[in-house]
Design a protein that fits this description.
With about 130 residues, this protein is mainly beta. About 5% of the residues lie in helices and about 45% in strands. A hairpin with a 4-residue loop joins strand 7 (about 100-110) and strand 8.
């Protein structure tokens, strides 16, 4: 983001390079070796965390102006480590849907495994006043 942007509007981009035979660089499978270039993640977003395993990555981000956190994955999914619906490759990056009450806090990748630490979102309770009118 340019210097004149207020802090709440600052955004970041994630760049990746190297081996890409399984989509590890999160862009395209056109070349097995990738030069330093941006991963295909939502524009105007702020990175809260990123982790890479042997051939897959996870990122935690928040879009500028939004409160909701999003989990994005890319790369090899041959052991379901990128949480895709089937084995193979997740490329370019894809948003991972979490349960509605889950708020992702941190991401972690191992050799062929992934983890996400989530807190529970507060669920609005119906007040007794709402039921007294029935």
């Amino acid at each position: 983001s340019p210097d004149w942007f207020p802090p709440e509007e600052l955004s970041q981009r994630l760049f990746c390079c190297g081996e890409n035979g399984r989509g590890q660089c999160g862009r395209t499978l056109q070349s097995s070796q990738q030069t330093l270039s941006a991963v295909r993640l939502p524009k105007n977003s702020r990175l809260l965390g990123v982790s890479c395993g042997s051939s897959h990555c996870l990122s935690l981000l928040r879009r500028v102006g939004a409160r909701k956190r999003e989990l994005w994955v890319w790369g090899s999914n041959d052991r379901c480590q990128a949480a895709g619906p089937n084995s193979g490759v997740v490329c370019p990056s894809a948003r991972l849907r979490l349960p509605v009450d889950a708020r992702p806090e941190a991401v972690w990748c191992g050799f062929a495994a992934s983890g996400v630490i989530c807190s529970r979102k507060a669920v609005k309770e119906e007040s007794a006043a709402d039921h007294s009118s029935e």
